[in-house]
Specification:
Length: 134
């Protein structure tokens, strides 16, 4: 699979929780994510940090903290909230509502024009989102 657009140095990749876990556990998908993001900047959201920390065992937290030190983190802002609200209204109206945190992450990606990398097919329901689903 060729991901020419994503290999540009100016591409800002945002990893959701599922993508981060694949990378941390060095799975085949994780290796593919590393290949896709090579040459671009990798970001995660503060929401992803929260999801990861609540699901991790005590011994895995150090591994996470090391990973957090290697990536940029984007917080949820007023502008992201506006994008997320519009998105949630659209999804609710169209009968395609997804997990709230996924809507918030998508709002961050729309606001910052990030390319989202995920293993979660729910994001397919969001039109216009720059996305790669593994």
């Amino acid at each position: 699979m060729i991901f020419q657009e994503m290999l540009k140095k100016d591409t800002m990749h945002c990893l959701d929780t599922s993508a981060v876990l694949e990378m941390l556990y060095e799975t085949e998908k994780g290796k593919e994510i590393e290949s896709i993001t090579k040459g671009g900047q990798i970001r995660i959201t503060s929401l992803t940090i929260q999801e990861l920390l609540i699901g991790m065992k005590e011994k895995e937290v150090k591994m996470l903290e090391a990973f957090f030190g290697e990536v940029l983190v984007t917080d949820f802002s007023k502008e992201c909230a506006t994008h997320s609200a519009v998105l949630e209204r659209y999804l609710r109206k169209s009968g395609k509502l997804i997990n709230k945190v996924d809507i918030l992450i998508a709002g961050i990606c729309f606001n910052h024009n990030y390319h989202l990398i995920t293993c979660d097919r729910d994001f397919e329901k969001i039109k216009g989102l720059r996305i790669t689903i593994l």
